[in-house]
Write a structure and sequence with these properties.
Blueprint: H1 6-16, E1 23-25, E2 44-46, E3 54-62, E4 70-71, H2 72-82, H3 86-93, E5 98-101, E6 107-111, E7 120-124, E8 130-132, E9 141-148, E10 151-157, H4 184-198, H5 210-222, H6 233-247, E11 252-260, E12 263-267, E13 281-283, E14 289-291, E15 295-301, E16 304-312, H7 313-318, H8 321-324, H9 338-354, E17 363-364, E18 376-378, E19 385-387, H10 391-399, E20 403-407, E21 410-411, E22 416-417, E23 446-452, H11 453-460, E24 465-472, E25 484-490, E26 493-498, H12 499-506, E27 513-519, E28 522-524, E29 527-532, H13 534-540, H14 546-550, E30 557-562, H15 579-583, E31 592-596, H16 606-619, E32 624-628, E33 635-636, E34 639-640, H17 643-655, E35 659-662, H18 664-667, H19 685-704, E36 729-732, E37 746-754, E38 760-766, E39 777-779, E40 784-792, E41 798-803, E42 808-817, E43 821-831
Parallel strand pairs: 4-22, 6-17, 29-30, 29-31, 31-32, 32-35
Antiparallel strand pairs: 1-28, 2-30, 3-23, 3-27, 5-20, 6-16, 7-9, 7-13, 8-12, 9-10, 10-11, 12-15, 13-14, 14-18, 15-16, 18-19, 20-21, 24-25, 25-26, 33-34, 36-41, 37-40, 37-42, 38-39, 38-41, 42-43
Length: 839
């Protein structure tokens, strides 16, 4: 927790003489409540909630996907960091199978789901070599039009044009920024044209907003028009010329009548060696084109028309592998990453060949099968192409040509997912440890979510949520964390649901997770305000966001005011986003203000800006200000951008008696926390959950230990706080318990886990180094498990303890090491049961 200096404690005690009752045990009071109110345009206030005890569920999960078979990130880690061959990787993940082979002339049929239901199906050939149903006449474009059930007319064009290329219309205008209220239909026409002919990528929503204006400007620049973002008659005439040119005055003629389906389009271009942009192109409804190797078939089915790509399996993989993993992996580790691409090629080949999903096709092109993007794409039939295939993935496919995994002579369904976490789920293949999955860049080796209790209760009709936990599912076929089910107790009933049901309900990355209920530990009559920037918006914007959910009901009134781009003091770059102006408007006498600002400020002037903020807050008679420091991960010229700002903040804490610094930087600076960050400042979803949980613990520590209001001067006392997953306990033993302040190489401890919320382990290490993957104390839920631990002391002088499940932690000092062991009288340094512990 933050350390309060004697001066701060004196100031707080003086404030407490007002006689406030600040903190009360949750068990000692019944709360009359009102609903949370929210605002999308300004600060948000929240009043006490009536939900039953649990305010949120902390979800600690692993992996991204189903956890079965190969981890794509794990394969990359094994290849690049451990120099494993593609054969070794496949043996590791698909135990009980062997490497086999199929003919490279094997074909697959792929349902192209975006074309489901098309009544008219068009294809183009940029080289003029398209054919239909085996006819020998070449064409630049063909279209099949269904005239009755499984009956088609076929048309040919003398130019490579999609059937709808000349059907787009554009308005004369004028259309201006924010003109959608009067002309939404005309705006949609312009957006459709820009998407089809200028690769704008706009939502066709009728809203002439900044994105549409930018797209108009891009079109104007290419058409040599005045670049002002306004659509008028000149833009309309230029657009019509483009549409006409795209049609190239194409003449369509009927070449087949009343043809019984399926209709098959082909090309005389070589399926394997032709350039990706010269094979058949399938036209979409908007006029964009995707090129596919092989044939395009149009089938009439009881569910509507279906379009199928019949293609050699080796060519199919050229459109699969770069969609499933990054082709650039092949260059990693001096080329060692090619083994990850080769392993993916074999897995994708085996999986694709075992699918038999439809009467007309074996597989599909979406993630529910495996992603398939064809060979190349165009925004229109006449525009340039963008490749889907890449040389590195093509090479990996060629290196493993025809190779599959087999068992008892049959090809097996080689499932794979993006990440499996520390261990695979098992199932069709034996579960295996997967440490290589913890590779730099993998955001989901371990992940965290915080789910508001009201959302869970509403989703399952529970009234108020009393508790929620994961328990082992004895009927599961899977291993460890992948074999859990969710048990939920509410004031209006209980529910047990599968991990998959819970995962789908709340958009979790995987069904491999554990649940820890977060209860409202204390009630306080203090008032609370949060002032933040874009880092804070992710945890405070709505009533169900992480910090707001976790603090629900703790304070009778809470104000959350976080805005992206906010500075502490308003310079030209932060017009209207002034933190000091916000501070000047908070209620007089607010007990606790948490400030999360600084990323948008100039480090050279930050100290003076902190003083301006503190002057404003003191004028509002704020009791305590807790300022969150900044991550120093972001670098410029080899130095941290925000280290000087943090130094200025620490210096300010010595000047202002009511200011404490919350050390987010130290909590989040280990390599294990890389996945908390999206850009070394802003947070991923996991990072937001961890930040919100850590900040909540800091705030409650201040509230319960006398840092705010009446802690020592009120009644109710403090609340013990378990050590939470992802929030390491940090403490120094130097200079206490018989351990000297210097000359210490290591300390001998007895570390005990007490009443953990679930099965798991404690890990103990020197805080200045990366957290090891090994455990020091293994425990079962509710147990008391001690173990002797020797921990090196590094330059930080601090020891860190992390836990897999929330648990009380005891730390007893037994001795220390210099040149030899020096015993001390055993003494207790940490006992989380007696009150909040250091962070």
């Amino acid at each position: 927790m933050p350390v309060l200096t004697p001066a701060k404690r004196f100031w707080i005690r003086t404030k407490q003489s007002r006689g406030r009752l600040a903190v009360t045990s949750i068990a000692a009071v019944l709360v009359t409540t009102t609903a949370v109110t929210t605002s999308s345009t300004g600060p948000v206030s929240a009043s006490l909630s009536g939900e039953a005890g649990v305010v949120a569920l902390r979800i600690d999960g692993v992996g991204n996907g189903h956890g079965r078979g190969m981890s794509q990130w794990g394969a990359y880690g094994w290849a690049v960091n451990e120099a494993k061959s593609w054969q070794w990787i496949l043996d590791h993940y698909y135990g009980g199978t062997t490497l086999g082979a199929v003919s490279t002339s094997t074909r697959v049929e792929v349902r192209l789901t975006a074309a489901d239901g098309y009544g008219t199906v068009g294809v183009i050939s940029k080289t003029g070599k398209a054919r239909w149903n085996g006819n020998s006449t070449n064409s630049h474009a063909l279209r099949a039009v269904e005239t009755s059930t499984n009956r088609f007319d076929v048309y040919s064009a003398n130019a490579a044009v999609c059937p709808n290329a000349a059907t787009l219309t554009v308005p004369n205008g004028p259309l201006l920024l924010r003109d959608s209220a009067n002309n939404p239909a005309h705006v949609r026409d312009v957006q459709t044209f820009l998407n089809a002919f200028d690769s704008a990528g706009l939502s066709v929503d009728g809203d002439f907003g900044p994105l549409t204006k930018t797209a108009v400007q891009h079109f104007q620049g290419g058409a040599n028009l005045t670049v002002d973002g306004e659509w008028r008659i000149d833009e309309a005439n230029a657009a019509r010329a483009v549409i006409s040119s795209a049609g190239q005055n194409a003449s369509w003629s009927k070449v087949g009548s009343n043809i019984t389906g399926p209709v098959t389009f082909s090309t005389t271009e070589n399926e394997s060696s032709a350039a990706s942009y010269n094979v058949l192109g399938l036209c979409s409804g908007s006029g964009s084109v995707t090129h596919y190797r092989g044939q395009i078939e149009v089938h009439d089915t009881s569910d509507g028309n279906r379009v199928v790509n019949n293609v050699l399996v080796e060519n199919y993989l050229r459109g699969v592998v770069p969609k499933e993993v990054a082709a650039s992996w092949g260059s990693a580790g001096g080329g060692a990453g090619m083994n990850a691409l080769r392993a993916q090629s074999v897995a994708a080949r085996s999986y694709g060949l075992t699918q038999s999903r439809y009467s007309y096709a074996g597989t599909c092109d979406t993630p529910s099968c495996q992603v398939y993007g064809g060979a190349a794409k165009r925004s229109t039939a006449s525009s340039g192409h963008t490749a889907v295939e890449y040389s590195l993935t093509d090479q990996a496919i060629a290196d493993t040509a025809g190779k599959v995994r087999k068992k008892n002579g049959a090809i097996v369904s080689t499932e794979f997912s993006a990440s499996n976490g520390p261990r695979t789920a098992g199932g069709s293949y034996p579960a295996v440890d997967d440490p290589a999955d913890d590779v730099a860049g993998n955001p989901n080796h371990r992940w965290t979510r915080m789910i508001d209790a009201d959302l869970v209760a509403s989703r399952y009709g529970l009234g108020g949520l009393v508790t929620g936990v994961t328990v082992a599912d004895s009927g599961s076929l899977y291993d460890g964390i992948w074999a859990n089910k969710v048990v939920l107790d509410g004031t209006s009933g209980d529910r047990t649901v599968s991990a998959w049901d819970f995962r789908n309900a709340f958009g979790l990355p995987a069904p491999g997770f554990t649940i820890t209920p977060i209860t409202r530990d204390v009630l306080s009559d203090d008032t609370f305000v949060f002032i933040g920037d874009s880092v804070g918006t992710g945890i405070t914007s709505s009533a169900t966001d992480d910090l707001r959910a976790l603090l629900e009901g703790v304070y009778p009134t809470s104000v959350f005011d976080a805005v992206g781009g906010r500075c502490t003091v308003e310079p030209p770059s932060c017009i209207g986003l002034d933190g000091v102006a916000t501070a000047e408007s908070i209620p007089v006498g607010t007990d606790l203000v948490v400030v999360e600002l600084g990323y948008n400020d100039n480090p050279s002037t930050f100290g003076a800006e902190i003083d301006q903020m503190m002057t404003a807050l003191r004028a509002r008679e704020v009791g305590l200000v807790a300022w969150v420091n900044m991550s120093t991960r972001r670098q410029s010229g080899g130095s941290s951008i925000y280290a000087p700002s943090n130094q200025a903040l620490n210096s300010a804490a010595a000047r202002w008696t009511e200011l404490v610094v919350l050390d987010w930087n130290s909590v989040s600076d280990d390599r294990a926390q890389d996945r908390w960050y999206s850009d070394n400042v802003h947070l991923t979803t996991t990072g937001q959950a961890e930040f919100g949980h850590w900040l909540r613990n800091q705030i409650l520590s201040l509230t319960t230990t006398g840092g705010v209001g009446g802690g020592s001067g009120g009644s109710g006392g403090s609340s013990s706080t378990k050590v939470q997953p992802g929030v390491p306990l940090r403490f120094s033993l130097l200079g206490s318990g018989g351990v000297p302040e210097s000359g210490v190489r290591a300390v001998s401890l007895n570390v005990t886990a007490v009443d953990p919320d679930g099965d798991g382990y404690l890990t103990v290490w020197a805080c200045g180094s990366a957290r090891p993957e090994t455990s020091n104390v293994n425990y079962a839920a509710g147990a008391v498990e001690p173990n002797a631990v020797v921990v090196p002391v590094d330059e930080t002088g601090e020891v860190c303890v992390s836990t897999y499940a929330a648990s009380h932690v005891l730390v007893d000092v037994m001795g220390w090491y210099s040149s030899g062991f020096e015993a001390v009288t055993p003494s207790r340094s940490i006992d989380s049961r007696s009150g909040p512990v250091p962070r």
